[in-house]
Write a structure and sequence with these properties.
Blueprint lengths: L3 H10 L1 H17 L6 E4 L5 H8 L4 E4 L3 H10 L1 H6 L2 E3 L8 E6 L11 H7 L3 E12 L10 H5 L1 H7 L1 E3 L7 E3 L1 H8 L3 E7 L4 H4 L2 E8 L1
Parallel strand pairs: 1-2, 1-4, 2-3, 4-5
Antiparallel strand pairs: 5-9, 6-7, 8-9
């Protein structure tokens, strides 16, 4: 188990993770109207939240891990003092234009139906949820026995979990889209084409209807 500081240092020094984060942040910021509020769901140590706030977006952060919250309080202390970042103990404590969930936060859920129902009370109509999730088709994972053992589960059900402490789940986009309905519709997903084999993460954009 990483401490907040260990996770923070690792995620900032990993070149691959920096590339993913930069792409995710750019997509989120391009979609957000000027001055729109955002909820960073599973905010970690506040890296994304700090960037949203720096770009003029009032930012709420929800993070259930105590270790992450402790480091977030240090890393974002100036923004928290100015109230450009506000910590919440429940996603339902705010009303925003967008929810972002970066670096596989939603892969910790076995089913997203209740989550999207709750987020429908958080996101304004016309707003969005942007999530980066582990790509179940990523061929870099084919070297692992758990990936090969679950290929048929992926084909048949579009979902499987791997045996681990955190029970990480893998989903195809249409399974998550089905859970998001009728409150959200899947508007866009990345990657396309050959990227399904080469990209560890997929980005899913859901529009509130």
């Amino acid at each position: 188990m990483h401490t907040g500081e260990q996770y923070h240092t690792f995620i900032l020094t990993s070149r691959r993770d920096r590339v993913v984060r930069n792409r995710f942040q750019k997509m989120a910021l391009d979609l957000l109207p000027e001055g729109a509020a955002v909820l960073d769901f599973g905010a970690g140590t506040g890296i994304d939240a700090k960037d949203y706030a720096a770009n003029g977006h009032p930012t709420f952060v929800y993070e259930p891990s105590g270790a992450m919250c402790e480091y977030l309080a240090q890393y974002c202390r100036d923004e928290i003092a100015r109230k450009s970042i506000v910590t919440v103990t429940s996603p339902l404590a705010c009303k925003v234009q967008a929810v972002t969930a970066n670096f596989a936060v939603l892969n910790h859920f076995a089913d997203h139906t209740l989550l999207f129902e709750e987020l429908s009370r958080v996101v304004h109509r016309g707003g969005f949820v942007l999530a980066s999730m582990l790509n179940p088709y990523y061929l870099g994972d084919a070297r692992y026995g758990w990936w090969r053992a679950n290929v048929m589960n992926l084909v048949r059900r579009g979902h499987y979990a791997i045996p681990s402490e955190s029970r990480i789940h893998r989903f195809t986009p249409h399974v998550v889209a089905r859970a998001a309905a009728p409150y959200f519709r899947l508007e866009r997903f990345i990657p396309r084409g050959f990227g399904w084999a080469t990209d560890l993460y997929m980005f899913l954009l859901f529009r509130r209807v």
